[in-house]
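Quick start: what a row looks like.
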Amino acid sequence: MSFNKLVEIENKKTETSYLQSIETIKAIWEKLKDDKSKYNSYLFQVADKILYFAELERELTDEYFQQNSLESLQKTNLGFYEEVMPENYIESYANPEYSVKIFGEETGAMLSAFYTSFRNYVTYSFQHQRFQMEKWNKLFIDVYEYLNDGKPETDELKKLTTRIYTTFTSEGAIRNFTFNYHKDTDIYKKIVMNADLNDIRYLYQYGRNITNNEIKTAEFLKDYPQEKINVLSGAITKAFIRGYDLAKKDLSIKKTIGVFYHLGQERIVRTLIQDLADNGLSAIPSMVFTTHPNKQYRYDHRFDSSLYLDEDFVNKANKNQEEAAEKCGDFMQEYAGPVYFDPFGEKPFAPEAKSACLKLSEEQQKLSQQMNMKGRQIVDKYIPRSKTSFCIVGFPLPEIGEQFEEIFEETIGINMMDTIKHEEIQQCIVDALDNAEFVHVKGKNGNLTDIKVKMHKISDPAKQTNFVNCGADVNIPVGEVFTSPVLKDTNGVLHLKETFLKGLKFTDLNLKFKDGYVEEYACANFDNEEDNKKFIEENLLFPHKTLPIGEFAIGTNTKAYVMAQKYDILPLLPVLIVEKMGPHFAIGDTCFSWEEDFAVYNPIDNKEIIARDNERSALRKEDINKAYTNCHTDITLPYEDLDFITAISESGNEFDIIRDGRFVVPGSEELNIPLDEK
């Protein structure tokens, strides 16, 4: 059953109750409109929001976007998001600091979280999910009555405001699985395939925040040569298929494929959907991205689940997910994986630390990890990594600067590099590294990196290798060789003067490793050492106390590096490209997590890559809950801060891979040409 049909059924069930709730809220609105008391001023704003979106949902037909002018649609769209934009967020109930100032510490944080739940009405109205609005309408009415029935008790108010999160059923998980994996999911697909992409008004059909990033991207692609889009789309399609071929996975049993993209890129997506269909894959555009109106707002609410996250919730959530997956298993098994357009160019975000924000306790952090691990196991039963693949490719956003169009063209050029030729060069590096017991990486120019990475022992050099020779298939662009290090005896310091991870800026990030695990950590984002440690704990290590090195790699795409230097955009590039521009380490799981027992081979020499496990992932044979971290964060050293990468053999012989920022392995010299020409 399609997602739209599931929504239709739920809407019919709740139609009478929904209409009654709207009438009740209208009466509440009338009663509160002149009431300036602190609780009722808050409740009035929520009621006003509910009624606004109820009316909008009724008006949102296909004709709506034709009948309204671009200016009108822009004004309406701005109204959805302006309250959380930085200039207004200061005095918004969505801001925990402001809410705490009004209601006090516990109640304020709670009511701020409750308030943000009603911001989901944008999605509910555009997708006509009246049944969702009905649930929240009824909860709002109950909260209104409770707050107007004497002085509220914190614990009771918490139970009440989180009721929907704690009383859910498997139907919600069924809808989520259906939206993401069912071939008939077409909410975004209809826009991509049917809209007039020459009329920028189509962007407003999503109900998402529309900025210059989205508008200028759409306008740029509107006039972009279709022949170039055809070549690009064809290359992406071939890369996805090649990922299956190289891994010796069976694509013939798959029928659907996810497509994740940034708004404004619909012309590329439309052609890609057609190309995928020609190869027997029905595209499901299930995830769309847009410019966030305020990243601080998102950051402030990242731990709102602390209000209800307990053992009972975790058990119930996993039980419902398991029941839902059993019912959706047939179409989930048809899913081949996603093609993901990774947007880049947004200005880096340096968050403000706020004491008013909710936090997870240590126990809740463990429960969160437990829930995520079980959830991963449930999905992996039907969409196992050993039988699926992916393809990720980066595209710039106009926010990257005035040279957006030139950067776009150069990015396309990098994405379209000759993968076979590059893999042949990389094979020289792989062959050299396969003689190593350790690889020593040392920084310079103020970079304090000094770490020795332990390699797996190769018992049959004619048939085995430690490093993946990574071309442009699952990860575009081409350009890295990577391995899963042995944790024991992997020791040293990884230091970055400045780096951008998970969309956040880290200054003077210093990670000290002992036997492959983070032992000590520090950064200089804040004046207070405790705040710096918390920042790393919450944004790199969370929900763990430490993480292992899951990957060691050497990026070889010097053309990408030169582009970054040419346009001075290194801080704006995604990990996808940055990881190809120097040595990098990933903290968390290996690149083979959940498919370690599935043999994989390099394309040039057909040797089996044996370094698929480490001591952490090997624990899956005893207790899978101890094996995985559900994290994988790449941290890259730029070439100019790299003194050397030296391989050390078991007998103690040393041979350089990179020295003074240049590749020195015989056969790899061509990689230096872009560096020497810049």
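That is the whole record. Residues 218 and 580 are 28 Å apart (CA to CA). Residues 418-677 form one domain.
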